[in-house]
Amino acid sequence: MSSEEKLFHIAIDGPVAAGKGTVSRLVADRLGFLYVDTGAMYRVASLLALQNKVDFHDEEKIVNLIRNADIQMRNPIDFEKDGRLTTVIVDDKDVSWKIRSEEVGNGASKVAQIMSVRLVLVEKQQHIAANQNVVMEGRDITYRVLPNANLKIYLTGKDFVRANRRHIQLQSRGVDISFNQVYLDLISRDKLDSERQNDPLKIVDDAWIVDTTDLSIRQVVDLIVAKATVMRDVRL
Length: 236
Fold this sequence. Notes:
The chain has helices at 20-31, 38-51, 59-68, 102-111, 115-129, 141-145, 159-172, 179-195, 217-235, and strands spanning 9-13, 34-37, 71-74, 87-90, 93-94, 134-138, 151-156, 208-211. By secondary structure, the chain is an alpha/beta fold.
């Protein structure tokens, strides 16, 4: 068996604030895999548009901004371990926290509707996974980016619980925003993701649905690691 055949890919999809980032990061750490936050790439596209005052519907300009930008992602190194899940570098500048604002997040849902943007970023995401074990999370990983992933997961949770998690997360960063605003933003982003004409958020037939509403992060991580370990052992 070639080294390529031994690769193990875990693809995780799901709505905002379902815990995908934290769970994926911890699962990757436990398994010794690379964690890939594809949503960060769309946030970068949104940030670039905002910084350059480009309208979110201007397809050509946004695509050019992405193509011309040097976008790098890596697991946080020692001095970067400040609570971030991944380190995102754009043109030699660390934007790991800049891309986490609500404004950038809302813009990311809009640029993600542009098919040409998705095609450019999907190609980059597939290149990352081509020669290594990954835990990749986003909105279209199970059917668009890694359709042949060994383990496909749809991570979800009730909207009120997800909004509460998001609100607590933002407050911990010093962001002054009401729960009601966070909830409305979450519902709006869910609607955008599910009604997107190109690659809408959906559950593929062979996905393992994990509802995180009544589970702790550790319980979710334990479940996924246990299942992935069994699957890998069977393949060896």
